[in-house]
Structures are given as structure tokens and as C-alpha cells.
Design brief:
By secondary structure, this protein is mainly alpha-helical. 56% of the residues lie in helices and 0% in strands. The longest helix is centred in the middle third of the chain and has 30 residues.
Length: 135
């Protein structure tokens, strides 16, 4: 347990396994005392939560580090993909939205709903004769 795990999956597996072992040990102790098995498992689940906060600090710290690294890696991939979709050559560009290679052309899902309306101008109302309603 000296160094943090290499992946989020490994850290999560180690922490989950340690919590399961803690519940199993508590349930076994309660069963040896004479508590019925189902009740001992339920009590062990409840008691294991605060005990895991105290006993598994190192594993939780490793999991926190793995979560932070995974989140940082995901944000970097997302930024790189967005830059590629914008057509930028450098995926590390910090200028979000500036210097678009396509000259600001609309992408799928983007629509200029106010085309022709500038500075608060109102668009003309749609002519009902052009779009008859289905009655």
C-alpha cells in the first residue's frame, strides 16, 4: 500500500474489497456471539461505514488521487476532441471559441434563431397563410 494505484479501476476495486472484508469480519464476529446471520450482516453493513472512514484512510486517499487523475485526463481528452471538431490544429488551445478555422460556420445542433435581427430588433411574425395548421 505504499504508492497510489495506476488506474481508477484498481483503486476502486481495492477499496471495495477492503470494505467487503470489513463487513464480512464484523458479520462473522456478530454471528460467533450468537446474533442471527441476516441481522449480523445488516448490523455489519451499518457499522462498517464509520469504521471504514477510520480504518481505510490510505485506500480512500489513493481512490481520491485516482479519481482526480481520471477526471483531469477526461477533461484533457474532451478539450482535445472539441478542438479537433472546431478544426483547430493545436488541441491545447486555451482560446475557446476564438480563431475558428471554419469562419464561425454553424455546426450541427447550432442554429441562428435571430438571423437578421440585430441589437434587439424584432423578427417579423410568421405568416399563418404560409404554415396552415392541421385542424
Amino acid at each position: 500500500m505504499g504508492r497510489p494505484p495506476r488506474s481508477l479501476g484498481a483503486a476502486l476495486a481495492r477499496y471495495a474489497a477492503a470494505r467487503a472484508v470489513l463487513v464480512a469480519v464484523l458479520a462473522a464476529l456478530l454471528t460467533l456471539v450468537g446474533v442471527p446471520l441476516l441481522i449480523s450482516i445488516l448490523v455489519a453493513l451499518v457499522v462498517a461505514l464509520p469504521l471504514s472512514l477510520l480504518l481505510l484512510k490510505k485506500l480512500r486517499a489513493d481512490l481520491d488521487v485516482a479519481l482526480a487523475v481520471s477526471g483531469q485526463r477526461r477533461r484533457a481528452r474532451k478539450a482535445s476532441l472539441r478542438a479537433q471538431l472546431r478544426g483547430e490544429v493545436a488541441p491545447d488551445s486555451d482560446q475557446a471559441g476564438e480563431g475558428k478555422a471554419d469562419g464561425g460556420a454553424q455546426r450541427p445542433g447550432e442554429h441562428d434563431h435571430a438571423a437578421g435581427a440585430e441589437h434587439g430588433d424584432q423578427l417579423p411574425a410568421a405568416d399563418p397563410a404560409e404554415h396552415p395548421s392541421n385542424r
